Amino acid sequence: MPIVLQNILIILLAAWMAWDNGTGVQLIGQWPVCVGLVLGIITGDYQTAMVISGTLQLMSLGVAAFGGSSIPEYGVATIVSVFLAVRTGANTGEAIAVGLPVGMLTLQLDILVKYFNTFTAHWEQRLLHERKFKQMQAVYLLSVVIWMLKYVFPITLVVLFGAPVIKSITEIIPGWVTTGLEVAGNMLPVLGVALLLHYMPARKYLTFLIAGFVLAAYLSLPILAVALLGGGAAYWIYQQRVASLKPASAQTVDESGDDYDE
Length: 262
Known about the structure:
Helix content: over 70%
Pfam families: EII-Sor
Shape: globular
Number of helices: 10
Structural class: mainly alpha
Number of domains: 2
Subcellular location: Cell membrane
Transmembrane segments: 27-46, 58-84, 96-117, 138-161, 173-197, 209-238
Distance between the termini: 78 Å
Protein name: PTS sugar transporter subunit IIC
Largest sheet: none
Membrane topology: Multi-pass membrane protein
């Protein structure tokens, strides 16, 4: 495959990752192994693509963007790492050493895009109240395109200019900018958890919520241990609910049986 065509397809893959997640299609998502498989098809070097993407997949396990939180973009890191390894012959460690900072840079862009798309969300809401549904759909698609830019911008720079330009950009960004974005990024998970608790029956199960907080914050139990205890508590509540419904179900069956006999 010609190099120019490969470059175009790699940039389009970055755009598709955002479109795939923004529209709910979810064919490949942002999973490194899925992105790596497509990169293997584009570049023709399946072994390099899968080795690097598999390594990044292991690094990303257990990392998820709940609520409004922002996480490193491992899909972008996969594209950059595989691209550099195939084009320059860099080994896995060297390629990932360059790809991960690009993923971290994209994390900062993620925060900026989320702030910008807040305005498009209010714009869509206003159009909804005015019953201008076609215009509302157009603004939604605009927000997805804006979301795509956070992937397309760094990938395009890497494809056109290579790794040195990315290193230069990360070095010249002022410290106060990255600090401010980091503070904002730390606030988003708190807001996301608060929104989730608002829709969950937190008051009804406040005892379990407090117990989980004490176990994690004061007893320093690992998240997996707290999650297993929460799963056990959920299963116990489920059993109690099933037991409370059994008498009513049995009575309904007996009454229907009597009607049938009559």
